[in-house]
Amino acid sequence: MSELLKTLEAEFSKIKDAESMSDSPLKKCLTETSEFKMNLKKLRAHLTKQIQEEADSENADKLARKRQLIIEKLHKNYRQWEHGVRKQGKVAFQQHNKFNKVILNKIYDFDLDDVYVNPLPPNAREYVEQAVGLHISRYNMSSVPVEDGSDMVDYLENVYKVDPLISKKFVDMAQIIRELRAGNLESCMAWCTEGSLLEFELHMLKAMYFLQSGDKIKAFNYVLNSIPGFLKKTKKHHLRHKVAPLLAQLVVCSQTTFDISNQREKCINLFTQDYCARNKLSFNSSLFLIVMSGIISFQFFIKYRTIRAASHVDWSTENELPFNVKLPDFLTKFHPIFICPVLKEETTTENPPYALPCHHIISKVSLDKLSKNGTCNFKCPYCPIMAARSRAEKVSFVFL
């Protein structure tokens, strides 16, 4: 990789140095074009003068010959300019082609897996391909105009080894999302659970469509016939404040000011969450979670590598990070099978796991008992290192 970077820097410096010189091909093109432009202005002035003199003079033949000489000079200047620009453009094109050829040859001189410090084992490639396929199924399916969903299901199975039962669910989800974006709410309305928040937001979106079309009477009747019954049936009276601005606009305003696109995206997001939960699909793909976690953690890896090189020490524990990385909530979740080694109980949201300074993990209840609610230091139950409540950090497991 370092050789590739050196080659890239050397070849780029050649182009940069050539472009910075006064006689570089592109600068010559610019200079010749500026000169040609000045000659055009001069010749135009001469032509204008000759035409005026020809109209006022009796010696029209002599002035016509002069005008012809000016025209011939114009053609000559054009041919010289065109030849120079073509020649210098060809030289610049050859320089860039040489740069691309050298760099591309260097890239294919070696296998990336041979220079990557943490190469994937051969048996992991299958899982990586499946993760890519699931990522495509989750995020890109609705943007692909598919007439027959079975073609996409077969493609994902043959190329990425995605289970057809899973990809079929994503294809069906994408079809409903496409219809939502096109303004057709019927399929999503038929799918959603009766009394859900999604149903309410779909009612609101449909009323906005009526209002946008200019039919206030139809919008008003739809709100009165759908929303009150929904609130009475579901007991969700806290949603009334969302209906009031819509009713007020029906009465007062002549034009709609609602952001229909934002309401539509809200419905799509709610539908996606409900659909994934009902079909036991991950709302975020594992590839997205891994890449995002890596981007956030990258700065800590750089700092750790610098410290490790300066102190000449290495981390000896496998499959465990030598530092804690704070990730956002949507990237973390309590592990469903983590059992506190002290109380022999599963950790929960109310009793989360905590890491001691020695990196051993116990539950919050155990931590409070051992530290007597943070009033004293205590010895780790698994090693002789002393710990304190203030030095323990809450643990978040990445949910893949």
Automatic annotation (TrEMBL):
Keywords: Cytoplasm, Metal-binding, Zinc, Zinc-finger. Its main location: cytoplasm. This is GID complex catalytic subunit 2. It is found in: Cytoplasm. GO terms for molecular function: ubiquitin protein ligase activity; zinc ion binding. A zinc finger (RING-Gid-type) spans 340-383. It comes from the Eukaryota. InterPro entries: CTLH/CRA, Fyv10_fam, Rmd5_dRing, ZF_RING_GID. Belongs to the RMD5/GID2 family. GO terms for cellular component: cytoplasm; GID complex; nucleus. Residues 340-383 form the RING-Gid-type domain. One of its GO terms (biological process) is proteasome-mediated ubiquitin-dependent protein catabolic process. Pfam families: CTLH. PROSITE patterns: ZF_RING_GID. The lineage of its organism: Eukaryota, Fungi, Dikarya, Ascomycota, Saccharomycotina.
